[in-house]
Amino acid sequence: MIASWRQTTVGALVTAMMVILLLRLWYLQVTDVDDSLEVAAAQQIRIVPIEAPRGDIFDRDGRFLMAGTIASMRVVVDRQLVNLEQEEAVLIPNLATLLAIPAAEIVAEFDLRGSGARFPIGGEVSNSTALFVLENIDHFPGVSVEPVPIRVYPLTETAAHVIGYIGAPGVSDLEAGASPTDRVGKFGIERSYEEYLAGTPGAITYRVNARGDILGVLEERPPQPGGSLITTLDLTLQRVTEETLMQAIQLARQEGEEDVIRAAAVVLDVTDGSVLAMASVPAFDPSLFSTGRISVEDWEAMREKAVQNNFAIQGSYPPGSSFKTIVYALARQYPIFPVSEEEHVDHVDPSDPTSFFCDGQLEFEATPLLNDWKPGGHGLVNLGQSLQQSCNLYYWSIALQIWERRTEWPEDLLQQWARSLGFGSRTGIDLPFESEGLVPDRPWFQRHQQQQTGVVRPEGGWAAGDVMNIATGQGALIVTPLQMAVAYAALVNGGTVWEPRVVQSVRDSQNNVTYANVPSVAGTIEISEDTIEDLKRDLNGVVNSTFGTARRAFEGFCDAGVPDSACVALREVGGKTGTAEIRQAIEADDSDIDTAWFVGVAPLSSPRYVVAVVIDQGGSGGLVAAPAARRIFQYLMGETPDPLRRGDDTER
Questions:
Q1: Which alpha helices (DSSP H) does 405-520 contain, by range?
Q2: C-alpha–C-alpha distance, residues 75 and 126, integer Å
Q3: Is pLDDT of 72 > 90?
């Protein structure tokens, strides 16, 4: 009986508990559901990203090239925190009054940014304006006043093509994870080093109610600023180089080349491939892009002049006679020297295998008589004098020897040599959009002929004349100024073809190196010390010998009062002029457009610098490009850079 009573009691208690539990479940699911949903809706979460300040950019000595970002007090709209009714009735009218911006423009900005976007609007605001907003926040739903990072380029156009700019993300950026409101690197090292410069965004997690009112801050994660880039550029040299190009353009116009607007120059350290200066004209002010938006008028003006092209790495030009230095080194290495025409055999020096008589004209099968740029020719010359005087016949004849003796070596011997120096492919510089250039050969010719692209003649095959064109830097051969600088550097540094670089390291906010872009060798060539010494001697002859094509341009190289005969710095400089002729159809007539080149080296006793200058449509290399290079070399050699004055009108 006792056991039965206990069982009855326990059963009653269990039954009672079950009833209570069922009643509670019924209450929660039926009677309290509306209240629960209301509480959940009233406590939503909003995560607001905070843009990270981008890193700074410095020259090799720690001078600002790009002053990073500054904190500008701006009104920031977060459309996640305001509904459409509030926007139209309250926010937009009040913002229009506060910022003195037409309401229609604010509506357009909202539409452009999209729903749910968070973005600054208007320009920088004063402290009193910021205080007014905070004191009247009910009239500005979804608005805050914050320090917003603004990309600042205080040097405006200086080194603009190297630094680059930022802008709205493209499709590939969005696919990589960028949001539509981000600003990403679009050009220059702003683009190449985006992952280092961008930093890591922060975020604030708010607890908000259904109306978007902030109820409190749940979490705040500060942004991590981007790393700072230490470039290889020398800011002072960069300015000298840019000033010089502007003077060169003015000089070319004074000499009758009225259409010239473009020029480029590179100063390269031959010992490690560092770019010390890189200039391209015309330039642009990156600040136009710092807000991520640019006016239609500004964009059209820039596009018309192609100012966003970095012609130092994107400009593709025939190198003209400045390419003879490449052929010189090949001829000296093998050796391959020209054979004078039979009527001049008695005029050559039998003791010098490089001796050649240049009468100014070359007979070549199935073509009109080929004329040297100098009427009457250069007379008796050897390899060194051929370079100093830029004798076309000499280099045409070397090409003929390569062609006629092609059973002794590959038919494309000259092209192989050029490619080993970096021509025909990108140098690998840490800048975007670099051009490859072109070293033409038989397969390239046949491909275009079969496909009838119009690039090559429709009849006949690859021939000796095509190799002759390459030997004088003409025809289909095209190069960039940077490629020329890299090749000349290899010819005087012992054969190292460097991969050029404009950034040497990345540092964090504590100045720790987080990335080191160490010098990298792209390739090597075999070149003897004798060839290097002969080449340096003859490059000096171009600027410092009686018949050198840049002699007049380099006269008076040292400071006033020092004659050239006593000018030590002049004996340390050498280079090669070039005038590339491009035949272009203009209306009904064909006309030649001459592009001026000079590529030089200093100091010759221990090479450190290569300077490559090209003045697009600038005329003669000796007349315009050599004087420009002279001024840059004057700075590098510790002399006072002179205003530009004309040199000799040669090679055309």
A1: 413-420, 442-451, 464-471, 481-492
A2: 10
A3: no
85, containing H or E segment: helix 84-86
For residue 488, pLDDT beyond 50: yes
DSSP state of 137: G
Average pLDDT over residues 229-243: 98
Q: How far apart are the C-alpha atoms of 372 and 414, rounded to whole Å?
A: 21
Could you give the percent of the chain with pLDDT greater than 90? 66
Cβ-Cβ contacts under 8 Å for 84 (sequence gap 6 or more): none
C-alpha distances (whole Å) from 70 to each of 55, 124, 391 are 11, 11, 57
Q: What is the pTM (predicted TM-score) of this model?
A: 0.86
Query: Phi and psi (nearest 5°) for 581?
Result: -95, 125
Cα-Cα-Cα-Cα dihedral of 239, 242, 246, 248, to 10°? 110
Distance CA 443, CA 280 (A): 34
The residue ranges of DSSP E strands in 517-560, in sequence order, are 520-524
80 in helix, strand or coil?
helix
Integer angstrom CA distances of residue 466 from 71, 400, 415, 477, 599: 59, 10, 11, 10, 24
CA 309 – CA 161 distance, rounded (Å): 8
Q: What does the alpha-carbon distance between residue 133 and residue 270 come to, in Å, rounded to a whole number?
A: 58
Structure tokens at 114: 């999209």
pLDDT at residue 205 tops 90: no
Q: Where are the strands (E) in 446-573, listed by range?
A: 496-499, 503-507, 513-516, 520-524
Which DSSP string do the residues of 23-70 spell out, in sequence order? HHHHIIIIISHHHHHHHHHHTEEEEEEEPPPPPPEE-TTS-EEE--EE
- Residue 243 burial (CB < 10 Å; 0-12/13-18/19+)? middle
580 within 8 A of 318, measured Cβ to Cβ: yes
292-303 pLDDT tens trace: 567 788 888 888
| Rounded CA separation 476/545 (Å) | 32
Tally Cβ neighbours within 10 Å of residue 241: 26
User: Which among 177, 181, 183 has a CA at the least distance from the CA of 116?
Assistant: 181
Residue 396, SS3 per DSSP: helix
Cα–Cα distance measured from residue 369 to residue 543, given in angstroms and rounded to the nearest whole number: 30
Strand 118-121 and strand 64-66: pairing? unpaired
Q: Give which of 167, 380, 413 is closest to 294, Cα–Cα.
A: 167
Closest CA to 145 of 243, 219, 249, 72: 72
What tens digit of pLDDT does each residue of 572-596 get?
999 999 999 876 544 445 567 899 9
- The β-bridge partners of 513 are 507
Least confident of 25-34, 233-242, 254-263, 562-571: 25-34
